[in-house]
Amino acid sequence: MKPILVLALLASACGGDDSMLDGSTDADDNSNDTDSTDSTDITDDADDLTPDAPLCPRPSLDQADLATYLMASIEELARTPRYTDTERNRARTYFISALADLGLTGERVAFPSGANIAVTIPATVASPEPPIIIGAHFDTVPDSPGADDNASGSALVLALARFAKDLPCRRSAVEFIWFDREEVGLFGSRASAQSHDPANVRVVYTFDQLGYNADGDAAFELELPTPATQAAWQRAATAVGVTLRITQTGNTDHESFREAGYDAVGLSEEYVGGDTTPYYHTPEDTAATLDPGAMVLATKLAAQAMFDAIASETP
Length: 315
Ligand SMILES: [Zn+2]
Known about the structure:
The structure is a single chain. This protein is 31% helix and 16% strand. By secondary structure, the chain is an alpha/beta fold. An 8-stranded mixed β-sheet has the order 1-2-4-3-5-8-6-7, with helices on both faces. Strand 1 (107-111) and strand 2 form a beta hairpin. It is globular and about 55 Å long. The structure holds zinc ion. The site of zinc ion (ZN) has 8 residues, from helix 3.
């Protein structure tokens, strides 16, 4: 990510916008449609066998194997740098294979200087809302295994695809994209922004450097959100119990989309706040320097935000 840093830290005095918290997240209504008229059991063989099982549950954010899943992806990706064609191809092959393990078919989407990997999980409703895009770059600078930058974001996006495929009711499609060539000029995300239409994409979430957490506070930074997106992520952060701060950090993949007119934000570790990997763009950016617990929290935060954006109450 982002060789150029910077800018302001609009300290999101959290708490600021709880205004919308109430009422929006309550577990749901149709909990008890108990038959008002007690059916006499004349002809009811199997009818009571499916009582009140909700049709559209959200998968639990607490997956017992989440840390293992994330760290295995990071370790596999960070076995080598991902700079040369050969190295980046190995990473693409890994994504295709990891997606196949989830029952999903990843697609190579080429552009003049590289190729992204993409997969779409479709909406389930008849009249869906416009899709959302979720992405992370997988390439590195030369000679860095890039565990934090950005095997961490790449693994998080894979874990989000795993959450999404287990969500039975989706009011919009979600497209997951692993971007190539971020480090040499945001080329993969730019190609992707150009091949989509901002009028037909509701929002774009990108992830870059999420696994470093030396101060143990598991705070994350949300980069350049619109007010509505900030409010949505703040609700997700409150639900998951993590701290979210707002920054003006650009120069990573969400910038490509924002420049092209999309509502796009990025999530990262405390890059502006200073609790960020000291091994940035070096051979020491290895999986062993990351905090699996922080990776889990970042992923749960992102999954909550994703569910809020795509879950439907009806099939
Ligand atoms: Zn990066």
